[in-house]
Amino acid sequence: MAGSRQSVQLTEAEIEDFLGSQMKVQVATVGADGAPHLTTLFYVLDEGKIAFWTYGSSQKVHNLRRDPRVTCLVEDGVDYFELRGVSITGRARLVEDYDEIKGIGSRVMTRMAGGADLGELGEDLVSKQAHKRVGIVIEPDKVASWDHRKLGALPGQG
């Protein structure tokens, strides 16, 4: 597999398609003791950037207020020759404007509902939750990607 790193990288268009097709992101922040704090969240794309909302009192928000560095991973696949993913290292931008938080939350909830209209009850829930939450947009510094489907199966594999 030597030299295959570039052969499995995704193009910009493939990265956008991949991130648009997935729903969950693993987010690592830096804890007060320097250890990583890892969580999984539902997300949407905001102008091509990963965005999500979370409780303002959460550990990840406390960590990001102290140190905005973050690493995110979106991955898919079970077998080796199906594995694909995008890893983003960058900084988290905290969104604290109520209307912006509500907008992110509404889009996340709609995506979680399979694109279905949230209706009045769902929008009311988002409006109430937005008071307790913070929006987060990932500002990427470095993006790494891979798609092992580009390797093709070795003899005896797949």
Largest sheet: 7 strands, antiparallel
Unreliable stretches, pLDDT < 50, 5 or more residues? none
**CATH-derived architecture:** Roll
Number of strands: 7
Cα shape: globular
Main β-sheet, spatial strand arrangement: 2-1-5-6-7-4-3
N-to-C series of helices and strands: HHEEEEHEEHHE
In short:
The chain is of the alpha+beta class and 158 residues long.
Folded structure, characterized:
The chain is α+β, with helices and mostly antiparallel strands. The chain has a single domain, classed as Roll (Pnp Oxidase, Chain A). It contains five helices and seven strands. Strands 2-1-5-6-7-4-3 form a seven-stranded antiparallel sheet. Strand 5 and strand 6 (84-95) form a beta hairpin. It is globular. The two termini are 16 Å apart. The mean pLDDT is 91.
Q: What does the secondary structure layout of this molecule look like, with pairings?
A:
Layout: H1 5-8, H2 12-21, E1 24-30, E2 36-42, E3 44-46, E4 49-55, H3 59-66, E5 69-76, E6 84-95, H4 98-112, H5 119-130, E7 133-147
Antiparallel strand pairs: 1-2, 1-5, 3-4, 4-7, 5-6, 6-7
Helix pairs in contact: 4-5
Give the tags:
alpha+beta; Pnp Oxidase, Chain A; 7-stranded antiparallel beta sheet; 5 helices; 31% helix; globular
